[in-house]
């Protein structure tokens, strides 16, 4: 499967690990609750680590661990829940996270421009056909009124 | 007024292109109803009982004559020859065709207008005082700050999917004419002891199902921190506002449940981390102020003597002058209200012909600008006293000179069951009935300042809970009933109306209103207004009479 990263369509080398799945080799992302309960084992794992967050999670809860991870996934249960937009902004602006911030789940293609402006630099659409579409939508506006973090 | 630069124009044009694409994708089945709903709402487009409804933003209620002519053109070309001015200074079209909405938005963009964020769970158009810049009690013109807020709120990437809608109102005067205490954020321009401009910030006010008066969260905010403080409030709201129940999702509920002290601490902590990076420079403020320079007033305007003569000779003109004009900062000028509350006309509606004529009159008599009011009338803000007679005569022929501003027939009324899919009961019909029984102008003027607000459902678009007399339509087993409240106010002495008693049947509403007014006329003290009397005697004397026959 491919995704959009830094305005390019690239291969996705990450595995989303379910909470009850065995640790797998390679780059893996886990839920915030799994991160909090299995941090020691995860850190011993070979490969990069990512944390998957939901709108109700708090960025402050794992801010101290940001130097240990390479990816934060914003997992949209519903495109209307705007909390993840603030989470992305906080990760980039407040905590200076330099790794990948990826939108997954049920975000809307039409939201990618705003998501990019709050610091999301990777998008994982539901289908491969969406890749060029969302890449295009990143160019919806050439001007903005507010400062952005992208 | 503010003129778009290349950035403003490009942004609006690109928004039109984006919405055109979204509409096409929806019509081709590539966007779901839910997805398109969120996108169209953020472009002002509702689906109503009969057809889509398009709400166009009028930033802080300020319009040019060219924009009004465009409204007329749109009404003629895409709608049924009329439009409707709302309680938040915007304008609505009730009959556009979905597939034509991108074209309408493109037309609006040619006159520096748009429908961005006029609905949906996002930051809405900032409203203000319709007398901004000319009011005698004004500390400083609020419009430059409103424009700064307009730009900041427009397409804000972080705050476009809030728990619920979010409305800001701004006042620069001692008298609050913008209902700031009933907004998610109210901003009052104030001066500190050193004479420096700053802002008193209120938070958590609102109407609708749970009317709450906003509370002061910061008594004096230095002006350079305006946007950082708003951003801090919005971030806390976006992160912590309730999303589990749409009726508890407004910021007023978050403030109430969290408590003002705790909420203030959360905002303060957030603000401290962003304030230094977001300061408004004096240069930026001055640049925006440069768009709101004073018109070229005639310094000899007060020397005119024809006006006094006309007042002496023409009682009808004198009556209109007394009720539909107010004083102005500059001697010899008045601000003139155009009443959109003529009997037989749904409150706030205007035809294309009226719009075109009003645009011409604005060019001729008021420097080509006009304003919308939150009580759904229009204002020519800068009319020379020597021109008042001629203007009045023109307005009479247009049916825009009913001398009823601030009286019991200057009713705020929502579209109600006739147009709105949310409504439980009709409201326009009730307004007409009240107009019919209050057709004696002398009686109407004797009653004086009575604000009647009528909403067709508890969403309260017509702000019934802050009407001096509030009327709320409710559905009882398929029939229309009406709940009355007394003593509400959205002005300085903000108050939520008290329930008079059980709801009354549709056929009894007008009788109830006339009974309330009779009780007032019989029991008022000398020079006592309706609202003052309700405060003095409470609702019991009214209640006794209204329910006497039951």
From TrEMBL, chain A:
What InterPro entries does the entry give?
A: UCP030820
Q: What name goes with this protein?
A: Oxidoreductase
Source organism (scientific name): Methylovulum psychrotolerans
Q: What is the lineage of its organism?
A: Bacteria, Pseudomonadati, Pseudomonadota, Gammaproteobacteria, Methylococcales
Automatic annotation (TrEMBL), chain B:
Upper taxonomic lineage: Bacteria, Pseudomonadati, Pseudomonadota, Gammaproteobacteria, Methylococcales
List, alphabetically, the GO terms of the cellular component aspect. Answer: sulfite reductase complex (NADPH)
UniProt KW Iron-sulfur keyword: yes
Q: What is this protein called?
A: Sulfite reductase
Alphabetized Gene3D superfamilies for the sequence? 3.90.480.20, Sulfite Reductase Hemoprotein, domain 1 (3.30.413.10), Sulfite Reductase Hemoprotein,Domain 2 (3.90.480.10)
Q: Which domain of life is it from?
A: Bacteria
Q: Which positions fall inside the Nitrite/Sulfite reductase ferredoxin-like domain?
A: 53-109, 345-396
> What sequence ranges are listed for the domain Nitrite/sulphite reductase 4Fe-4S?
119-273, 411-546
PANTHER family named among the record's database cross-references: SULFITE REDUCTASE [NADPH] SUBUNIT BETA (PTHR11493:SF47), SULFITE REDUCTASE [NADPH] SUBUNIT BETA-RELATED (PTHR11493)
Q: Cite the Pfam families for this sequence.
A: NIR_SIR (PF01077), NIR_SIR_ferr (PF03460)
